[in-house]
């Protein structure tokens, strides 16, 4: 889907390097690059860190932008907080993926949290964060954090523990951990939740992944009686829109989050707030159709 | 802010033309072009129509994408319907700009509408629509439509009429009609509304126009006791997000729109629906800050 071209612009006075990603070879995004900070490969994927003029430092895995310093807070706040405020006092959290530390940073903002387990398959991603993104790495030094380098599916299946929230921070259904998109994995997630717990799954850009999303939403509905999609707007994301599915045994909103708890949380966020906690779940008709819910979004 | 480069990709087997727009020379969007259908200039601006691989036909004015066939419905539905459902039965509507016919098409979906006046400064834009966008031109043949080619500010000031809704469909604050961003114009709009009427102003991408939006929001608040911002996600828009300000003498939501009216309207829309009519006004904290409203979005 995406590719990286480093080609100089046709300007002899200001020849620059540009990152160029394309969707289906038809629509592209370009980022002007200051310089490359890291270009290496792990056993799982190519890992690059570049410094850009418009979006700060950027992490690329397998040639795809995973996050930019400019807007990583939007993604990380929006994948973490809705699933945590659905629980009256979440104590134990599991993040599948999340080796970049962004989701971890947000989870640790909830004072009830006692233990967060991050299960990342690729230790070289976390090494790169440690070197180039100090604002993201801090959570790994928190005594509440447990960092495990393993396949998330296998680890969760074997761990014999339950969690108040499970966050599946897998950036790409075609990425290194194919098992994270399977029905087996969804079942393992379901059986690893406490009764009042919820899980959140990244379902990516609704415009680009219609067919994949339909299948994922159908498979998740078999496991979870409650499944609710929501959206966040992300400038650096393909077509600017990112979707998530919040799932659990019981309905979830911000019902378990009192006004004081929400206000304390919002003070520490830049995108997330009480309004967006409600508004993110109110979908345009075209997106509601993909998730096979009625346009009125009635519960 | 934007520029058009038609430069072939460095691929000898598939040399193609690309449209390339840049934000502050740092972040760009590229569109692969099939061919140019129109390249001309009016007394006001350069006018281009190109056929693209990913987004269908695209109208460019002064080198900037005004709309694409793929997502024009999002913009046009979202600028038209919130201001119209704020009125129990809007009869007279004025569209300032709107020579592309998209907003007009949406306005005519409201059965109470008796007369729509479109005030477009550039007749060559409407000519281009007639030739290349049949899906957008239809509204100009409707007997309820009055099409005037004049400066919107001057026309509205002189017309001595009032409207149940005024839609300011001006695509760019730096465009040919500079007068549409002034306090004088806002005053003229205010005095041209019926008592229960509302106006909507395009305030463009919140990330890119922070300072301009702050000034516009402040100036509009002087004229209108009620000012409420809302958002739509537009893949072809810079950074994917478009903001609007709904203004009037009285508060507006969908309060005047009963369930049956909303359902009939939603059936004829692709993006707009009851959920998004509510959700579009629930803003992320960072956007609420730009419009100088509290993060809780309390009214």
Outline:
The structure is a homodimer of 299-residue chains. The first copy, chain A, is an alpha/beta fold and 299 residues long.
Largest sheet of chain A: 7 strands, mixed
Question: How many helix segments of chain A?
Answer: 10
Measured distance between first and last alpha carbons of chain A:
35 Å
Uncertain spans of chain A: 1-11, 294-299
- Report helical residue fraction of chain A: 25-40%
Give the DSSP E fraction of chain A (strand runs of 2 or more residues): 25-35%
Largest interface: A-B, 52 and 52 residues
Structural class of chain A: alpha/beta
Summarize model confidence as the mean pLDDT of chain A. 89
Order of helices and strands of chain A: EEEEEHEHEHHEHEHEHEEHHH
Layout of helices and strands, plus pairs?
The structure is a homodimer of 299-residue chains.
Chain A: E1 17-23, E2 27-41, E3 46-52, E4 57-61, E5 64-68, H1 72-85, E6 92-97, H2 102-107, E7 115-120, H3 123-132, H4 134-137, E8 145-149, H5 152-158, E9 163-169, H6 183-191, E10 193-204, H7 210-223, E11 226-233, E12 241-248, H8 259-267, H9 274-279, H10 285-290
Parallel strand pairs in A: 6-7, 6-9, 7-8, 9-10
Antiparallel strand pairs in A: 1-2, 2-3, 3-4, 4-5, 10-12, 11-12
Helix pairs in contact in A: 6-7
């Amino acid at each position: 889907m995406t590719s990286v071209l480093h080609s100089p612009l046709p300007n002899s006075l200001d020849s620059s390097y540009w990152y160029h990603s394309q969707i289906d070879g038809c629509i592209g995004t370009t980022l002007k690059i200051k310089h490359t900070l890291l270009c290496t490969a792990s056993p799982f994927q190519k890992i690059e860190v570049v410094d850009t003029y418009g979006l700060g430092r950027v992490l690329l895995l397998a040639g795809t932008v995973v996050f930019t310093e400019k807007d990583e807070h939007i993604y990380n706040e929006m994948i973490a907080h809705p699933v945590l405020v659905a629980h009256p006092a979440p104590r134990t959290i599991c993040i599948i993926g999340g080796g970049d530390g962004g989701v971890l940073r947000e989870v640790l903002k909830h004072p009830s949290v006692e233990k967060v387990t991050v299960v990342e398959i690729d230790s070289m991603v976390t090494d790169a964060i440690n070197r180039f993104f100090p604002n993201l790495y801090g959570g790994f030094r928190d005594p509440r954090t447990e960092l495990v380098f393993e396949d998330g599916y296998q680890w969760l299946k074997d761990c014999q523990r339950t969690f108040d929230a499970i966050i599946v921070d897998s950036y790409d259904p075609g990425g290194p951990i194919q098992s994270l998109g399977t029905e087996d994995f969804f079942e393992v997630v379901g059986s690893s939740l406490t009764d009042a717990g919820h899980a959140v799954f990244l379902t990516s850009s609704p415009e680009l992944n219609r067919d994949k999303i339909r299948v994922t939403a159908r498979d998740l509905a078999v496991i979870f009686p409650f499944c609710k999609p929501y959206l966040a707007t992300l400038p650096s994301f393909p077509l600017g829109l990112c979707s998530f599915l919040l799932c659990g045994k019981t309905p979830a909103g911000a019902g378990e989050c009192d006004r004081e708890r929400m206000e304390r949380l919002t003070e520490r966020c830049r995108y997330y707030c009480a309004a967006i906690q409600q508004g993110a779940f109110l979908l345009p008709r075209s997106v509601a159709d993909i998730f096979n819910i009625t346009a009125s979004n009635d519960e």
